[in-house]
């Protein structure tokens, strides 16, 4: 695909945070606090060469990297194409920016819908708020999913010798959730099991050797906290009504992703029809879907 490669880095700041956002993919590439501690994974390609991509118009991988819509087959890579495309800046202040991606000739080759994807970032104290809006600009019902994939350094303090296993993830509400297993790169809905997140999940690299932990969410609000009992700094990701949460790291990598998803990868038994896809959203002509998440530093 002939993606435009022009990109710009947008700097936001207040008394608590300095944030950098790339117009390529509307991706957050840096969040530093007033002590200059970097919280976002710096895309070391030896492990994983991204920071915090926006996932659209699919989350995860399609079976055989293709789907069928209206009798025609389309090919699309993992997590969709938005993360590879240049967004335009439509509004900008010292502490906020709005970026937009509209359907075009390149997107139509992969995805036959007219759309506007708008990502708005706003600093509010020690929190970066992200608003995600999807508008159906076409005449037909639009099918899509959306998600966020922020990765955080572990250890958070890059000057320390603290070990990965000293960190924990705490999920709120604290309870037992349904875990959807991966038969990488697809999910297996026939073998859903329970995962007890009523207490801290201590990080170990081995947790992610079989890929992401995919959790089914049925709450209006999800909070995932990354912290260390003996360390002052942490991160909290809060999301509005996500259908799933993904916890992931590359093998033996010094980071972890806390991912709110409004959609999910194909099931191993998926029939490839986009309208049948698990977690797919249906949006009528000229309607807008809105959701949001935030990253708070403490």
TrEMBL record:
Transmembrane segments: none annotated. Gene3D superfamilies: 2.70.98.10. Pfam families: Aldose_epim. Signal peptide: none annotated. GO terms for biological process: carbohydrate metabolic process. One of its GO terms (molecular function) is isomerase activity. InterPro entries: Aldose_1/G6P_1-epimerase, Gal_mutarotase_sf_dom, GH-type_carb-bd, LacX. CDD domains: Aldose_epim_lacX. It comes from Apilactobacillus micheneri. This is Aldose 1-epimerase family protein.
